[in-house]
Design a protein that fits this description.
2 domains, Rna Polymerase Sigma Factor, Chain: A, about 80% helix, Arc Repressor Mutant, subunit A
Length: about 180
């Protein structure tokens, strides 16, 4: 029996799913900036996927997937805070507007973010092991700076200074790497 040709609806659904997957790193970064907790951010992303899948499965066409996902993620975060009776962060409205504007301006430039991510990964790989460990402890494992200082038997100030220098070095490395790879 020959395979059925995909319907136009299947093509639209596939395009929406591809757009969601392409925007995934930015969506996750946005959620993380909203809630600042890795576990909660993961939960919100999973709920976002469920809502996205349900919405598209019922035939609704989402014309701008990243913007829809950001707005829906904010609603899910608010619901989560209410459900847990937790105080929600109250970002400065002007700052929130600027963040949304930055995301909106870059929505159609997926390669911009992919290039930055690739450059950052390369730059992280070039760090000495001790520096990579410090970055991992702070940003991947989310350890408080005071805990890192205690574990490494160093002062709080020295850890803060080291992290500041590492962030500057990584930013410089990424800038140089992007300059080398740009046409």
């Amino acid at each position: 029996m020959p395979a059925a040709d995909p319907s136009p609806n299947d093509d639209a659904l596939d395009a929406q799913v591809r757009a969601f997957l392409a925007a995934r790193p930015l969506i996750q970064a946005h959620i993380r900036s909203l809630v600042r907790e890795a576990a909660l951010a993961d939960d919100i992303f999973q709920e976002l996927w469920v809502r996205f899948e349900r919405t598209t499965r019922h035939g609704q066409v989402i014309t701008h997937v990243p913007a829809w996902c950001r707005a829906t993620a904010r609603l899910i975060a608010l619901e989560s805070w209410r459900k847990q009776k937790r105080e929600q962060p109250t970002p400065d409205p002007e700052l929130a507007s600027l963040i949304e504007q930055a995301y909106t301006e870059q929505d159609d430039h997926a390669t911009f973010w992919q290039d930055h991510t690739t450059a950052l990964k390369h730059c992280l790989d070039t760090l000495p092991p001790r520096s990579r460990d410090l970055i991992t402890r702070r940003y991947q494992n989310e350890q408080p700076i005071a805990d890192i200082a205690a574990q490494l038997h160093q002062s709080l100030g020295s850890i803060k200074t080291a992290l500041c220098r590492l962030r500057l070095a990584l930013a410089d490395c990424v800038r140089k790497r992007l300059t080398l790879t740009s046409p």
